[in-house]
Design goal:
With 424 residues, this protein is α/β, with parallel strands linked by helices. Helix content is 24%, strand content 25%. The chain folds into two domains: 281 residues, QueA-like; 97 residues, no CATH class. The chain is built from eleven helices and 19 strands. Helix 6 runs antiparallel to helix 9 and helix 7 packs across helix 9. Belongs to the QueA family.
């Protein structure tokens, strides 16, 4: 199978269309998948060819047949933590504490979760009359093991200090007392099976409060088939925050404030990507919007290094950086190679940083050739990302077809493979 030539400037949608009403659709409640299928890779797969404007219907276990030989798959290796805690006020009232981001002693979830010492977290609190300095505990009577001291609180947002009596790590404490933080639109409590089914086979780095759901369809069997076809795999990390569920409420998309998330890439993984993209015909398929936002952020950081030199504070990507044509004119190989050289110059094995990048129509997405992704909520930043890849009106054709053909939507739903250019 031969590749189509890789253009220097990938597909964009032309003029910006920022009216949110252009990026919504009617999603019936019965089309939202409440539970996963028994077999991960038995989900349906809608295959959309943007260049040809065609749609095919397959099963996810067929994906190895659809990706080019010698191509690369980029996945997110984040792992969901048991971030939802049910605690009690001194009066006995129940309070839900939803951990979002660690603050101290480090913003790095890996460090905090491996620690046996108290840690401070930004969180969401559900419950009435929760006040500053209140101590929330895991049990009403007897000696409490887990305590959450409310350091500050504004409406439903707070900062708490977690303390525990036993000597385990925070990760172990959360496994004992916490539950899987399922998306709110599932309208159900987590079940025992969700502990395994709401993690991807790639999950290694603890820190997310939501799964990178495109990866939920992959199985060892699928990965073996991809390996036999010569499809290489590279991993990035984006710890998914609650902002992923935040709807775009502004009528003008440009007024939306994008959430910031922690991202990282190991030097060994970036070396594989640099080597792969050295060839003009290189093909990269990213698994999920989180992998795409991470890889695109690494690209934008590299483009900035090419443009401005190595005198930088590090990887920190702004909301509108993908619209900066002085960055997106840099080839992806040159950008990735610049990040690699910067990491070597700074003796860095893993590059950690943050991104608030918003990929929306008008953004020249440079890092990938195809995207594996589920079907997203109306009016969400994730749907805007899909529209950026597909253009108008093809994204509507994809979603209209999926609705008409009975596809299951959102986190536990079916999948799609969006190919930005055709295979020759």
């Amino acid at each position: 199978m031969r590749y189509a030539p890789h253009s220097e400037r990938l597909h964009t949608t032309g003029n910006y269309i920022m009216d949110l009403s252009r990026y919504t659709y009617d999603l019936p409640e019965q089309r939202i998948a409440r539970h996963p299928l028994e077999e991960r890779d038995s989900s349906r797969l809608l295959v959309a060819d943007v260049e040809e404007g065609t749609i095919r219907h397959r099963v996810f276990s067929d994906i190895a047949d659809l990706l080019p030989e010698g191509s690369m798959l980029v996945v997110n290796r984040t792992r969901v933590i048991a971030a939802r805690l049910q605690l009690f006020k001194p009066t006995g009232g129940r309070v839900e504490v939803f951990l979002v981001n660690p603050v101290a002693p480090s913003p790095d979830p890996a460090i905090v979760l491996a620690s046996r010492e108290p840690s401070d977290w930004e969180c969401l609190i559900g419950g009435r009359h929760v006040l500053q300095d209140m101590v929330l505990v895991d049990r009403i009577s007897g000696d409490a093991n887990l305590r959450a001291v409310v350091l500050s609180k504004t409406d439903g947002e707070a900062t708490v200090r977690l303390q525990w009596s036993t000597g385990g790590t925070l990760s172990a404490i959360l496994e004992e007392y916490g539950s899987v933080p399922l998306p709110p639109y599932l309208h159900r409590d987590a079940e025992e099976s969700d502990k395994e089914r709401y993690q991807t086979v790639f999950a290694r780095e603890e820190g997310s409060v939501a799964a990178p759901t495109a990866g939920l369809h992959f199985t060892p069997r699928v990965m073996d088939a991809l390996g036999e076809k010569g499809v290489a795999t590279a991993a990035v990390t984006l710890h998914v925050g609650m902002g992923t569920f935040k709807p775009v409420s502004a009528a003008d998309v440009r007024d939306h404030v994008m959430h910031r998330e922690r991202i990282g890439i190991a030097r060994t993984e970036l070396e594989r990507i640099v080597e792969h993209t050295a060839h003009d015909e290189a093909w990269i398929t990213v698994v999920g919007t989180t992998s795409l936002r991470t890889l695109e952020s690494v690209y934008l950081f590299g483009a900035r290094l090419v443009r401005d030199g190595f005198d930088t504070d590090g990887l920190d990507i702004g909301q509108w950086d993908a619209l900066d044509t002085t960055l997106t004119s840099v080839s992806r190989h040159d950008a990735f190679d610049a990040v690699l050289e910067w990491m070597k110059a700074n003796d860095m094995e893993t590059c950690w940083g943050t991104t608030a990048v918003m990929l929306l129509p008008g953004a020249a997405i440079r890092s990938c050739d195809a995207l594996v992704t589920n079907f997203h909520q109306p009016g969400s930043t994730l749907l805007l990302l899909v529209a950026a890849l597909c253009g108008e009106p093809f994204w509507r054709t994809i979603y209209g077809t999926a609705l008409a053909d009975g596809y299951r939507f959102l986190s536990y739903g079916d999948s799609s493979l969006i190919m930005r250019r055709s295979l020759r």
